[in-house]
Amino acid sequence: MSIDEAKKKISTARSHIVLRHPFIAPLALGMKVLVTETLNPPTAAVDGRRMYFHPAFISKLTDPQARFVVAHEVFHPMFLHMTRRGGRDPLLWNIAGDYVINYLLVEDRVGELIPGCLYDKELYESCGGVTERIYDQLVQDVKSGKRSFSGQPGEGDGHSSMDNCMDDHGENKEELENEWRIKVAEAAQIARSCGQMSVAAQRFADMILKPKVDWRKILQNFVVKCRADERTWARPARRFVSQGLYRPSISGEAMGDVAVAIDCSGSIGGEQLSQFAAEIKKIKEDMNPSAIHVVYFDSEVCHHDAFSREDDLVISPHGGGGTAFSPIFRFIEENDIEPVCCVVLTDLMCNDFGPQPDYPVMWVSTHQGTAPWGEVVIMED
Predict the structure, then answer these.
(1) Which of 258, 262, 246, 365 shows the shortest CA–CA distance to 320?
(2) pLDDT tens digits for 54-83?
(3) Which of 139-175 are b and which e, b meaning 16 or more Cβ less than 10 Å from the residue's Cβ?
(4) Which domain holds residue 160?
(5) What is the pTM of this model?
(6) For residue range 318-354, what is the model confidence (pLDDT) as tens digits?
(7) Same domain? 197 vs 327
(8) Statement to judge: residues 152 and 185 lie in one domain
(9) What is the phi/psi pair of residue 362, to 5°?
(10) Which of 19, 35, 46, 76 is the most exposed place for a label (fewest CB within 10 A)?
(11) Distance between CA atoms of 77 and 74, rounded to whole angstroms?
(12) Total Cβ atoms within 10 A of residue 182
C-alpha cells in the first residue's frame, strides 16, 4: 500500500469515528497524522501531539481495525501515558497502557480489536484498570515466566504490542498534561451536547478530569480528625453501660484505640497488604494511639490482634472465604473495643454492611465502589 492510500484509509477511519464516537472525534481530529515508512518495526506510534503509521501495517487492517488503531493512538496521550511513565521500562509501560486502552475500546465497541493484540479482562479488572498496577503485575509475570511479549501484532503467544508510545522530550510535561485535560473536557462537552456521551466515554473523561487524590494523606487526615480534644458525653463508654453506669468515652491528646479491618477474602493482594501495613505503622508512629486492633475478616471475623504503644505492628492475614462487613462491627461491639475510628481495607465487593456504628469509618478500597455510610477513598499508587 502506498503512503497516499494509507492516508486515505486513516482519513476514512477518522471520518467514521466522527460519526459514531463524538467524544473521541475531536481528540482524533486534533492530532497530526504522519504516514511514514521509517517506523521500525512497521506498526504505529504516538507522542503527545502526533500519530505515526507505517503503510505496510495499515494495509493489513480491515476498516474496523483501522478505526480501532486510530482511537488506540488517541488514548495514549489522553491517558497521559507519556508523562506518567517516570523511570519505568518503556516497553512494559507501553504494554500496560495497551491493556488498559484495548479493554476500554472493546467495551465501548470502537472498531475491532486486531487478533493477537493485548487484551486481558481479568488482568484489567484485578488491577482496577490502573496502568501503574498493571505494569507492576507485568513485571512480576515476566520475571516468573508467566508472560512473554513479541513486538508484532498477531505474533507470538497472543501478547503483543501494536504501537510505540513515545515520550516527546521537546514538550513541557505539565503544559502537555494541561492541554490534554482541556481537550478532554471540551470533547466531553461536545458529546453531551449531542446526547451521545456513552457510559464508557464518561468513564474515560472522569479518569482524566477528576484529580487523583493521595489516599495516604486522606487516611492520615481522617485519623487526625478522629482525635478529640476532650472527654465527651456524646458517646458513652460502652463497657460501662452494661453495669448501669454512664461515663464519657475516652479522648484527649492521648489518642484512643484505632480499629483496622483487613479483607482477607482472597481479592486483596500481598502488595496492597504490604502497602497498607506501612501506612498503619505510620499512623501508629505519628498518632500514638493507645492501641491498634487489627481485625482480619472474610465472611466472618477470622482473627484479631491488639497492639499497644510498645508493640511492633505485624500484619499477618487470616481467612480466604467470601466477604461480609457486618461481622467486623459486631465483633468490635461484642468485645468491648471502643475505637475512635475504624479503617477497613477492602475491594468493596459486598453488600452486607450492617448498621452504621457510632464511630467514624473509612473504607480504603482497591477498586471503585460506594458504601451506604462512612468515607470511601480509592487506594491508588
Answers:
(1) 262
(2) 999 999 999 999 999 999 999 999 888 888
(3) eebeeeeebebeeebeeeeebbbbbbbbebeebeeee
(4) 3-209
(5) 0.56
(6) 877 788 999 999 999 999 999 999 999 888 888 899 9
(7) no
(8) yes
(9) -115, 130
(10) 19
(11) 6
(12) 11
